[in-house]
From TrEMBL, chain A:
Short name of one Pfam family: BPD_transp_2
Family: Belongs to the binding-protein-dependent transport system permease family. AraH/RbsC subfamily.
Top-level taxon of the source organism: Bacteria
Organism field: Solimonas marina
Protein name according to UniProt: ABC transporter permease
UniProtKB/TrEMBL annotation, chain B:
InterPro entries in the record: AAA+_ATPase, ABC_carbohydrate_import_ATPase, ABC_transporter-like_ATP-bd, ABC_transporter-like_CS, P-loop_NTPase
CDD domains membership: ABC_Carb_Monos_I, ABC_Carb_Monos_II
Single GO MF descriptor: ATP binding
UniProt signal peptide: none
Keyword Repeat on entry: yes
Protein name: Sugar ABC transporter ATP-binding protein
Domain of life: Bacteria
Residues of the ABC transporter domain: 7-244, 258-496
Record's keyword terms, sorted: ATP-binding, Nucleotide-binding, Repeat, Transport
A matching Pfam family: ABC_tran
Length: 348, 500
């Protein structure tokens, strides 16, 4: 192996990007039209666009999850928070089609900006609750957020009256279905949030503080970092991301299903973060890696559909692929394999 | 007490990364005696125990068990040879029965089926416990008994493997008075049976209650072996604390500080389980020493002053204004800094670079928004690496890769960058070599001469007496008294030991 390759493969993003590229190439071989992009009716269409668009909620939640994990936390309530946010937004917008003198108009319960602010406010409150349980009550993060993971869906059902809430207000649909400059609007949402987070981490001391807290929370507190405040803030940010994802999902399907929206999202998000090279033990994290991780997961799902694997075995195939990817990324495994190769060479 | 040596270790030396943890240490354990191993933190007690129990191999010296040279390779090996150890933390299985814990790994089995012969296991375990004069139900789970009994079960397990030497590493630190008495009864029983017991503790009164002989270590060296009856308490303390190195260039007499206005005043400051309400005053440009034995409340008092633990009594005033800290960040905002005792867990952030570690406190004080540019960070880090002579390959090296002394300098640099008005140093020279010690002390004294107040916590009395303008002494979580700088070491010792 040349030194150049070693240096390249040492980069955090190398393995996640390689995995993504391999997946896309494999898709291109199985399905020659897979990588094609088309310009139709002023919009850009194609599987690649579709993957990024569908991955948007997961990318957002993964960004939030990355920062929580970086300070030795974990938030498994993101799926439930997504459902709460979706339900709150759907309930507040509500909407009904009113036929007046033969003209149908959409009427909302509350103005759309109020509904969006309400949903995000509730999401922030959820994050505050998680953060307080972890920091103030000193609970293990997985247990603290398990509470909201379980209770959150119940809460969402309570808001929705136990039913799937349908939204009848077309302007709201733009968020999850609209196009801007020929590209899906969600792409711009994701890009803006990623850029803002990136700037916050690198142009302020936040990135340094997060890494310090992740490596040694006690020493960070002694050095005067407001570790508890920052940790609570990160749980709120993570919940906010789940809240935004909830808006996108509910807008996309024009309804809010308290029971199924964001189901198992927490596991996908943790997986995306891990695939992206962030250590679950805290301290070392990669925002870009998590985005790539989320894209890998969505590509995987699309691949399974496009290759035509029967939906019943879908989960098994996904698990096997994830297993392979994780092995590939494990430094220990790579060393072992290298050991085998070297031994075989010697024998030959 | 007989004079037959069971275990004889001589000329023991052990170095870690070039630093001597032990050099030329000797220890003789005789049949039927309780022998105390005394010394301060970092004196080499735990290294010596590790050598005796086969956890680490000594670089020099020999160990002989009843005249036969031995070289235990692991704790299990040492146990086979007859050296058993009970550690401070009971490491048994609380969910298993007492009998299972005692006999684990060597259960009696039925002849043909090879299944465990429970009734015989229980008989054996009960017999072993009776050897310690303890009659308890061995079928009940270990967790149903108090810590003291659990401790004794651990001892029972240790001695049941035909041990001739029993090492008790701080067994009393989690026991109350009654439980300690119970443990001592067991120790006496074992002593009568001819066991040699090595007893490690920080509690002096316990040493005098039970031990026949005392071996004292200091800075990895052997100070002496004494009969307990011939060594008064004050003499023991001075043997432990000693005077082992001379600090150069420290002339504190010239600084008149008595009249300066107080920078920090603490009144009745206390915390349940930490320190009893204590008064303390620190003036500008003053070096205030805080002495006392380990566990006397020195560290706890500093933590209260720094806001690391919330005080539940008393007030702190800075420049006469009352303050209440909810977090260290608030104390730091008023110019207070603390170099904590535990460098690895509370000081350095191991995976971050030297640069990031050095700017951390200043950046925390500046807040999120006023982020120091990379050029500013480099300049600060470079300046302090040179000022304190920090030996590092580059300022981007992770601080965890540096030696202990250099890590301590990085933590010190982190605070000096913030230009504190009061710098609190908790055992700043612990666990680092003498050269680094001197450099750190002279740097601190230079800053004190420029007007910074220093609270200097140390267990080394000669250091306190030489360096400080005033010395406050803690004993049993209270302030025992104050002395002016230059007082005799005897006066300080008397306050520490409570024999004044």
């Amino acid at each position: 192996m040349s030194a150049r390759f070693k240096q390249l493969s040492g980069h955090t993003l190398f393995w996640p990007l390689l995995t993504l590229a391999l997946l896309l190439v494999a898709n291109g071989i199985f399905n020659p039209g897979f990588l094609a992009l088309q310009w139709r009716e002023g919009h850009l269409y194609g599987n690649l666009i579709d993957i990024v668009n569908r991955a948007a909620p997961l990318i957002l939640v993964s960004i939030g999850m990355t920062l929580v994990i970086a300070v030795r936390g974990l938030d498994i309530s993101v799926g439930a928070v997504l459902a709460i946010s979706a339900t709150v937004a759907a309930w507040m917008i509500g909407g009904a089609l009113v036929v007046d003198h033969g003209v149908t108009t959409a009427v909302t319960r509350l103005p759309m900006p109020v509904a969006i602010a309400g949903a995000l406010g509730v999401a922030l409150a959820c994050g505050l609750w998680n953060g307080l349980l972890v920091v103030r009550a000193g609970m293990q993060p997985i247990i603290a957020t398990l509470i909201l993971m379980v209770a959150g869906r119940g809460l969402a059902q309570l808001i929705g009256g136990g039913q799937i809430l349908t939204i009848y207000y077309p302007p709201y649909f733009y968020l999850g279905n609209g196009f801007l400059l020929g590209l899906p609007f969600t792409l711009f949402v994701v890009a803006a949030i990623y850029a803002l987070t990136h700037v916050a981490l690198n142009r302020t001391a936040l990135g340094l503080f997060i890494r310090a807290i992740g490596v040694n929370p006690v020493a960070s507190r002694v050095a005067g970092i407001r570790a508890r405040l920052i940790t609570i803030g990160l749980y709120m940010f993570c919940a906010l991301m789940a809240g935004v994802a909830g808006l996108i999902v509910s807008s996309n399907v024009k309804s809010a299903d308290a029971n199924n929206a964001g189901q198992l999202l927490e596991l996908d998000a943790i997986l995306a973060v891990t695939l992206g090279g962030t250590l679950l033990t805290g301290g070392r994290f990669s925002l870009a890696g998590s985005v790539v991780g989320a894209l890998i997961i969505q590509t995987l799902t699309s691949t399974i559909y496009s290759v035509g694997i029967p939906p019943q075995v879908n989960m098994v195939v996904k698990a096997m692929l994830v297993f392979a990817v994780m092995l590939l990324q494990s430094a220990e495994f790579r060393t072992t394999v290298r050991g085998w190769l070297v031994r075989t060479e010697r024998r030959a | 007490m007989s004079d037959t040596a069971i275990l004889q270790a001589s000329g023991i030396g052990k170095r870690y990364a070039g630093v001597a943890a032990l050099h030329d240490v000797q220890l003789t354990l005789r049949a039927g005696e309780v022998h105390a191993l005394m010394g301060q933190n970092g004196a080499g007690k735990s290294t010596l125990i590790k050598v005796l129990t086969g956890v680490v191999a000594p670089d020099d010296g020999t160990i002989a068990l009843v005249g036969e040279p031995i070289a235990p390779r692991s704790p299990a090996d040492a146990q086979r040879l007859g050296i058993s150890t009970v550690y401070q933390e009971v490491n048994l299985c609380p969910n298993l029965s007492v009998a299972e814990n005692i006999c684990a790994g060597r259960f009696a089995r039925r002849r043909w089926t090879r299944t465990i012969h429970w009734s015989r296991v229980h008989e054996e375990a009960a017999a072993i416990m009776r050897r310690l004069d303890l009659d308890i139900d061995v079928t009940r789970s270990l967790s149903s008994y108090p810590v003291a009994i659990q401790q004794m079960v651990a001892i029972a397990r240790a001695v049941s493997v035909s041990a001739r030497v029993l090492i008790l590493d701080e067994p009393t630190s989690s026991l109350d008075e009654d439980e300690v008495r119970q443990l001592f009864a067991v120790m006496r029983t074992l002593r009568e049976q001819g066991m040699a017991i090595l007893f490690v503790t920080h509690f002096l009164d316990q040493v005098y209650a039970i031990c026949d002989r005392i071996t004292v270590l200091r800075n990895g060296g052997f100070v002496g072996e004494y009969r307990t009856s011939e060594l008064p308490q004050a003499a023991l303390i001075s043997a432990m604390v000693g005077r082992e190195f001379a600090l150069t260039g420290t002339d504190r007499q010239a600084v008149p500080t008595g009249e300066a206005a107080p920078l920090l005043t603490a009144q009745g400051l206390g915390r349940r389980g930490g320190v009893w309400p204590t008064d303390l005053q620190i003036r500008r440009g003053e070096v205030l020493g805080l002495g006392g034995l380990l566990g006397s409340g020195r560290t706890e008092l500093a933590r209260l002053l720094f806001g690391l633990d919330p005080a539940d009594a008393g007030v702190i005033a800075i420049d006469g204004d009352e303050r209440r800290w909810r977090a260290p960040a608030e104390a730091i905002a008023h110019g207070i800094a603390l170099c904590p005792e535990e460098r690895k867990t509370e000081g350095i952030v191991a995976e971050l670079s030297v640069r990031e570690n050095i700017v951390l406190a200043l950046q925390a004080r500046l807040g999120l928004r006023r982020y120091l540019s990379r050029a500013q960070q480099n300049e600060i880090a470079q300046r302090f690496v040179e000022l304190l002579g920090i030996k590092t390959a580059s300022i981007e090296t992770p601080v965890g890769l540096l030696s202990g002394g250099n890590q301590q300098k990085v933590v010190l640099a982190r605070w000096l960058v913030t230009e504190p008005r009061l710098l609190m140093l908790d055992e700043p020279t612990r666990g680092i070599d003498i050269a680094a010690k001197q450099e750190i002390m002279s740097e601190i004294l230079k800053l004190a001469r420029q007007g910074m107040a220093v609270l200097f916590i140390s267990a080394e009395i000669d250091e306190l007496v030489r360096v400080c303008d005033r010395i406050a002494v803690m004993r049993e979580r209270r302030k025992a008294g104050e002395l002016v700088g230059g007082s005799s070491e005897h006066a300080v010792l008397d306050l520490i030991a409570g024999t004044a």
